[in-house]
Amino acid sequence: MMSTKGKAIRAVVALFMLSSLFTAPAFGSAKKEFPVVNLKECGTRNQIADGKDGRQYKCSISAGGLRWKRTGLKAGASQGSSASAADTAKYANVSGSIAIDGSSTVGPLTGVAAEEFQKVSKTRVTVGISGTGGGATRFCNGEIDIANASTPYNEKQRALCESKGVKFTELRVATDALTVVINKRNNWAKCLTVAQLKRVWQPGSKIQYWSQLDRSFPRLKMPLFGAGTDSGTFEYFTESINGKPARRSRVDYTPTEDDNVTVNGVKRSRGAMGYYGFSYWRENTDINKALQIDGGKGCTSPSLEAVLDGTYTPLARPLLIYVNNAKVKSNNAIIPFLEFYAAQLDDLSQRAKFLPLTAPQKKKLNDEIAVLKAK
Length: 375
Description:
Distance between the termini: 81 Å
CATH topology of the largest domain: D-Maltodextrin-Binding Protein, domain 2
Largest sheet: 5 strands, mixed
Number of strands: 16
Helix content: 25-40%
CATH superfamily of the largest domain: Periplasmic binding protein-like II
CATH class of the largest domain: Alpha Beta
Strand content: 15-25%
Number of domains: 3
Shape: globular
Radius of gyration: 23 Å
Strand order of the largest sheet: 5-4-6-16-7
């Protein structure tokens, strides 16, 4: 008969084995663990990884943070990629490495492109999310090949690149409808005007309660969450809502370069308000609720249709990547990556939940890559 001590040891072992079934998946080689290399495991939403159990996992928001979730596909699956073998065969011998950093808004789209490109080539692509400003600094210092940006580089950033001798090409890869979000339990605010948003977000704003914004709203505290000052999202939002010059905002809010902080902050408080890119809202419609915005053309929800017909104003914006022209000549992997990115853009935008480019915008992108290739 087994001793009491033996039974206890056996119970502990059994508990350990059971708990291991619910932890993040174990991964094989470094190449499979990080289709796109980030600062930490499951650090970027939509990141795809293959587990040793032969299943594919996706980095998704769950239980107030980022967790690995099964996609239902086998390891190595492209999860809906429309790229055929014939389309991608020309990339099979492309090798080297590409370093990318910048906007956390554009990061998921470029990240999906990088994941797919690594599957059809021998190229290692790393994607960081230090914010548009942080990415611009690294880009102008020649530390990275490509920079993601959620707003066009300003005069200071362009001057920095010029002072460092960095010439670049600006490429539009998607469109964003910057989204103002509230808690799902907020049942009083459906639409706010730009003037009301300015009253909330302008420098020195004294609004702390919803009732101060509209007397029909409840006297409920209004915790605020938004982009950090290094972010292009911060620059675009503050200029669009508070007016020029950009980057003027109240300071008593929770600033962050990680949009997941805003998602979960708004989720936790019934009176909270925040803002981030459209793709993050589409990923979290079950967690946050989007406000309609009245920019002078009536209350309008963020959508591709509203962006194209000009009714979602003033928060529609282009999403960009910047390419170091000199590095294109010294790094033979960059042009193939850009061509792949452009060719698969419709599918990539759908997977990453971005607003796709129009046909004329896609033609312009392809023409600009062709010019860059010929330089």
